[in-house]
Specification:
two-stranded antiparallel sheet, 60s Ribosomal Protein L30, Chain: A, 127 residues, six-stranded mixed beta sheet, alpha+beta
């Protein structure tokens, strides 16, 4: 088994000292991912837009690990304002509706007041 680190190019990874994802054998652990577009370092204004971008960022990390959203077995959502969470449900349903991973949502503050959602996933490659 080999351990491989995956980066996204986000300056946060270097500044804070973490990887976007860690591949350990068939397991992929994707760090909490927000709605920043790492190419422009811009973030959308609403939770649904941020959820979409966070999922794109997660998909990119999973692709580098030779996996996809279909391999996700667990997802954790962190939102500062729990009352906004239903606004992103259609985005989450589109991404995970057929996959149905184990999931939970936590309401907690995030590193930047502009962040409306952070998504962390664990995936296992199918062999």
């Amino acid at each position: 088994m080999t351990r491989r680190l995956i980066g996204s190019g986000s300056p946060f990874e270097e500044q804070i000292g973490y990887s976007r994802a860690v591949v350990d054998g068939d397991w992929i652990f994707v760090s909490g991912t927000t709605g920043y577009d790492y190419g422009t370092m811009r973030i959308g204004g609403d939770i649904a837009t941020q959820a979409e971008q966070a999922l794109k960022n997660i998909e990119a990390a999973l692709k580098q690990a030779d996996a996809s959203l279909a391999d996700v077995v667990r997802v954790t959502y962190v939102v500062p304002d729990a009352s906004e969470f239903p606004q992103c449900w259609p985005v989450l349903q589109k991404a995970f509706g057929a996959i149905r991973p184990a999931a939970m949502m936590i309401s907690a503050g995030l590193a930047d007041a502009k962040m409306k959602i952070e998504i962390e996933v664990t995936a296992r490659k199918r062999t």
